[in-house]
Specification:
Oligomer: single chain
Shape: rod-shaped
Number of helices: 1
Strand content: under 5%
Helix content: over 70%
Largest sheet: none
Structural class: mainly alpha
Distance between the termini: 48 Å
Length: 33
């Protein structure tokens, strides 16, 4: 297993996490208004 592979995996997981996080933030803010 190469070093770049691990970095790509971590970036991929982070990207999915933030995407999910921002989607939830948008839903919360739309519910408040």
């Amino acid at each position: 297993m190469s070093h770049s592979y691990i970095i790509k995996e971590l970036l991929y997981i982070n990207f999915n996490f933030y995407e999910d996080y921002f989607e939830r933030r948008k839903k919360q803010s739309s519910n408040e208004s």
